[in-house]
Structure formats: structure tokens, C-alpha cells
Amino acid sequence: MRRRSSLAARVTAVCLAVAGIAVLVAGLVAASLVRRTGEDVLQRSLSAQADVVASQVDATGVGSRVGLAKVADVLHGQGISVVTSRFPALASADASTTRAATEAGLQRVGAGQSVSVKRTVAGQEYLVEIRGVSGAAFALVEPVQMARNTQRVFVRNLLLALGAGLLVAAVAGLAFGRLLARPLRRTANVAATMRQGRRDLRAPEEGPAEVAEVASAVNELSAALQHSESRQREFLLSVSHELRTPLTAVRGFAESLVDGVVSPAEAGETIQRESQRLERLVNDLLDLARLGADEFRLDLAEIDLAETVRSCADVWRVRCEQAGVVFSTELPPGPVRVVADPRRLRQVLDILAENALRATPAGAPIVLSLDSRGVIQVRDGGPGLAPEDYAVAFERGALNAKYRGSRAVGSGVGLALAHGLVTRMGGVISAGPAAEGGAAFSVGFVVR
Questions:
Q1: How would you class 149 by CB atoms within 10 Å of its CB: exposed for 0-12, middle for 13-18, buried for 19 or more?
Q2: What is the pLDDT of residues 110-128, one digit of tens each?
Q3: Can you tell me the distance from the alpha carbon of 131 to that of 127, in angstroms, rounded to the nearest whole number?
Q4: Among candidates 387, 292, 289, 307, which has minimal Cα distance to 349?
């Protein structure tokens, strides 16, 4: 398995990258600004010196030449060359500075005129300030090397700032990453404990909003798993009870038959009835397990709901009479055609009718109805359900867990299976109070 980097390491790397990029971008911008600013400062300084020299030079002959030579010696010590026109050449000027001054227009400047330019000679940049005086002109030429020296100092300082910034970013990123990862690590520990089966732990909902949301989601998942597993345990208990009841009856009558206590006919009838009940429960469990699988098949066809309801009513009328329950039907005058699986639809109606008969006392009614809109109802006159229980009536074991100690209830497999079958056939199934005083279960399809 590939080892993944920690959140703290990733946050540190991001902080380093951001700090490095920020310093480099700022450095590039600042370097350009420093260079331009340095050149501007040098240009203004050189211009001021040229103005001073022009004001001090006596243009009347030898005096001016002697005075200009002295000025040239002073400026040469500052790295500035003096190039003259219509004056004798000065020792401070060399070929490069002379060429720079010439290209800048030294020979064309008249009295009172001034020129401030930058020229490049043999790869070297020069700042040139030309002033025209009476009968002559001179130029102060200074290489831009001094600005570049300043720029190199700036780059060195920038690198130092970059190193310091990266160091601070690394420390800050590592600290922030660990701080951010702490609640996530606690949440991961809770999730790992949940994987081992514990459901009573909760992750601390702290830190940034996104981290707190992760902890909240894990807590909600833990609570949902706890609730689901509790419901599953209750469902398994109810199914075990439903399985044990017919098995106990079969075993008891088999032992009585062996001991000669009961007649073979009586024992055989009871064993057959309870084995059929056991078979139905097992088949319902298998169907419920297969319902969500792709291989679960439905044979959909166009059928007449009225005919299906009549066929179902013929069977359940007899069973209700045997139990002392008043059974009746309500049917439309004509056919009601829908698309459904006739065998599975009959299975759904049998489940609903069996649940109604189990809950309905002797003398109370059960009504199997169909209207022209394609809605089938199984209504009973039993005790009904609490208003909040109709919404969970089709959840496995939900009604069994609540009413097991107060009335005859099933395992909850049948209602869950009925809901799944109707949904797979494209219908709608719901539960609510019945006009007869008990519960009403409705199954609806789209009429063709």
C-alpha cells in the first residue's frame, strides 16, 4: 500500500510554496522598481552636477579650461567622466564615454541647451548629461554599474528575506497542519473504534467548519449505525420468534403422535398447517433478501385489478368466516387495467389481508376494496396504529418492536416485502387510519 503524506506535511508544503512564490513575485517587482528608481536617482544627481558645473565654468577662454579640468578631476573620483566639445580633451574621458557623449548629441548642443539621455556602448549602459555653454559644450557621463551594484545588494537581501520567509512558513505550516489534523486524527480514531463494533463514542466537533462537519457526519453515521443495528437485532428476535412458534408446534405434535396422545389425522393437520406457515415465512425472507438484487425478476403484464381482487376475496372470505370476522368487498362496475406482476400482486394482497386478519377481533370487519383509479385498500376494524407508526409501518420489525407485548403481531417481514414488491412494480403503497376504526393499507397503480 502506498504511503500517503500527512495533512501537516501537505499544509507545510503549501505554506512553503505560497511563501516562496509571494517572496519571488515581490522580489521581481521590487527589483525592477529598485533598478528604475536607482537609475532615476543617478540621472537626477548627474543632472544636478551638470547644472552646477555649467554655472561655474567660465567660458571666456583659458580660465574656463583650467576650471573645467579641476572639476573633471573631482568628478573622475566619483566615477563620472567629463567629455568636452570645442574644448581641449580632458584626461578623464576614454573612448567609451566619448562615444556615449557623441551619440547623445554632444556636438549638436548649443549654448543654453541641455540633454539627459541613456546610451549603451559595447554592452555598457551610460547616463549622459550634456550642457551647452558659450562657445562650447560638455557632457557628464556615468556608467549605470552603480545601480547594478545596488541591485545586487538588493538581490542578496531578497534571498535572505526569502530564506527567512520560507523558514517562518515551514514552522507556521507545520504548527497549523498539526493543529488542523488534531481533530481529524481524533475523528479517525473514533471511526477506527466504530469499525471494531463500538457505537457509543463520538468525535469532537471542533476546529474549522469543514473539519467539524466531518466529525458531525461521523457522529451521525455512528448514531445511524447504532439505531440500525438495534433495529436489526429486534428484527432478528422477532423473526426467531416467528420461526420458533411453528417449529415448536410441529415438534410438539410429532412427539404427541409418537406417544399416541393425539390421532394421526389431528397431528398431521397441525403439522401441515404450521409447516406451511413456516414455509411462507422462509419464502418471504428469501424474497426480501433478493428484492434489491438484479436477478430478482418480475413478469409484468397488463392485468385487470378487479379480477385479481375477486380471486383474492374468494380465499380470504372463507378464512375470515372461520375466524368470525366480517369480510366484505367493494369493486367498481367495470375492469381496471394496469401493468403489474399478477403473482407478486397477489402475494402483496395476501400479506396485507393476513396482517389485517391477525389484528382484527371476531365480529369486526375487514374490507377489500378497489376503485376505478387503480387503488386497492385492505381496511380492518382492529385497534389500528398510533399516528406516528403509519410512517414506519413498512420498516422491517418496526411494528413488531412496539406492539409485540400488547397484541398479536407478525415479524414485520411481510409488510417490508409488500413495500418492496409494489415499489419494484412501479406502484405506491401507504398506510393510514381506516374508517372502520383500524388500519388501512393502500396499493395504487397507474390505470391504462
A1: exposed
A2: 878 888 888 888 888 888 8
A3: 13
A4: 307
| DSSP string for 300-322 | -EEEEHHHHHHHHHHHHHHHHHH
CB 308 within 8 Å of CB 373: no
Write out the H or E segment, with its range, that includes residue 124. Answer: strand 124-133
> 426-442 burial string, b = 16+ CB within 10 Å, else e?
ebebbbbebebebbbbb
Cβ distance 78 to 112 under 8 Å? no
Domain spans in the chain, listed from the N-terminal domain onward: 7-150, 209-290, 301-444
What is the DSSP pairing of strand 326-330 with strand 439-444? unpaired
Fold: same for 209-290 and 301-444? no
| Chain position carrying cell 419494484 | 424
Query: What one-letter code names the amino acid at 260?
Result: G
Extended strands (E) in 358-417: 365-370, 375-380
Q: pLDDT band for 281, please (50, 70, 90 cuts).
A: confident
The topology under which CATH files domain 7-150 is Beta-Lactamase (3.30.450)
Residue 145 in this model has a pLDDT that exceeds 80? no
SS3 (DSSP) at 150: helix
Rounded to an integer, what distance in angstroms lies between the CA atom of residue 151 and that of residue 35? 6
109 neighbors 132 (Cβ within 8 angstroms) = yes
For 120, the grid coordinates are 549603451
Side by side, the strands of the sheet bearing 114-121 are 81-85, 136-143, 124-133, 114-121
User: Between the CA atoms of 297, 303, 307 and 312, what dihedral angle is there, to the nearest 10 degrees?
Assistant: 10
In a 10 Å sphere around its CB, with 0-12 CB exposed, 13-18 middle and 19+ buried, how is residue 71 labelled?
buried
Nearest Cα to 167, choosing from 6, 12, 9, 8? 12
User: In CATH, what is the architecture of 209-290?
Assistant: Orthogonal Bundle (1.10)
Mutual angle of helices 305-323 and 342-359, in 10-degree steps: 30
Element (H, E) at 439: strand 439-444
Domain 301-444 has CATH 3.90.1150.10: no
Q: What's the burial of 345, exposed, middle or buried (CB within 10 Å: 0-12/13-18/19+)?
A: buried
**Residue 360 has what DSSP assignment?**
P
Does residue 148 register a pLDDT over 60? Answer: no
